[in-house]
Structure formats: C-alpha cells, structure tokens
Amino acid sequence: MSLFEEHETTAHIEIVRELAHSQQIVRVFEFMLERLGLSQSSLTAAFAGIGPGSFTGIRIGLTFVNTLSQILSIPIAGVSSLDLLAFGPDGWYNSVVTFLRSRKNEVYTAFYDKGIRKTDIVSLPSEKFPSFLEKHSPEFVVAPEDDFRDLGKLQVPPEKAIHTFPSSRSLYHVVRERGPKPQNEYLKPLYIRGI
Q: Which has the minimum average pLDDT: 2-11, 63-72, 147-156?
C-alpha cells in the first residue's frame, strides 16, 4: 500500500501475506494516514492492481479500493500486474517481457516497448512461454524470483532477468503516464483466458 503526494511516494508498506492482507488492510491504511497527519477526506483518488495474480489478494485489494471510492466519492483506477512489472525503479524498461505464473501450469505474460504494451496480456502453457520470449527478444524479462525458478528450463541470461514483484509504488506513475484515467466506476479483476 502506498500514499502519494505531489507525484512522489509519501509512504509505502508491503503486506506480504494474504491472510494478513485481509485482516490488516484497513489498519495499515489508517496507520499510514495517522502517521502522515492526513485524514481520509484528503484523498483525491485511489488505485489498485487488478491482476493477474493471487485471486484472493486481488479481490481483497479491489474490495478495499471500491469501498473507499463509494465512501469518499473519489475516482479510482486499476492497473494490470504485468503493467506494474514493466515499470522499473527508474521508469519504463525499454524492451521487456513481464510474466507471472498461474497455478494451472500457465504463464500470464505481455511484451512492452518503452512502456507501451505491444501484445495483449495472454495466458500461455508454460512450455510455450520460451517461444514467446524468443519471438519478442526483449532486453529484459521481469517476474518474481519464484516464478523464474518454477519454470525450470527457462534460458534467460542473468543480466536480462529482473526479479521483482508488482508493487503499489508504481501504481500512481503507471496511471499518470499511461492511464487509465481514474473514474467513479467499480473496478473488477482482470480475467485472462488461455490461448
């Protein structure tokens, strides 16, 4: 969870366990506001990851943001987890494939060039993912370290592999630079069908 003020991250807390996420999200939110001396009425917009990813974690985050929007009458926007991975610590990667493993022996993936998604977000069988990488020949491949390890035979040179996870620190920047524009509409999870 991150709070932004004047385009900069003011506060950031990562909730790393789904159970703690569901039990603590409201308390963490209130703690952050209190520590910064802010009230809920000072919020002007809210953002959430819409997936793909942990079904439970995404549902909890979306429920929280949708509720904030209704209670505070603020606009909200959702961003794909893969879009968040394409935005690095210093901005958009020049050429990157981002991916996340699913529990069905599939890979959610997309190819980006300078922050523009050049392919649809797709779900591929794990054995077809190396062909996707070869076709797009990205400068970098970004995913959580466990997802790289779970694919086993994936041949990505160490200097091209970036191990990270989708982070709320990127949400504001991705929305500001690439959209979507915050609106007063209910956010739904992003469902991806296999091809």
A: 2-11
Which of 10-17's residues contact partners 24+ apart within 8 Å by CB, and which partners?
A: 10/36, 11/35, 11/36, 12/168, 12/169, 14/167, 14/168
CATH number at residue 151: 3.30.420.200
Gyration radius (Cα) of the chain, Å: 17
Handedness of CA 60, 80, 169, 76 (dihedral sign): negative
Window from 5-9, 36-40, 148-152 with minimum mean pLDDT:
5-9
pLDDT at 43 over 60: yes
d(CA 99, CA 86): 10
Q: Which domain holds residue 67?
A: 2-80+167-178
Q: What is the pTM of this model?
A: 0.88
Helix (H) or strand (E) holding 11: strand 8-12
Q: What is the largest CA-CA distance in the chain?
A: 51
- The answer to whether 56 and 189 have CB atoms below 8 angstroms apart is no
How far is residue 138's CA from residue 57's CA, in Å, rounded to a whole number? 29
Same domain membership, residue 36 and residue 62: yes
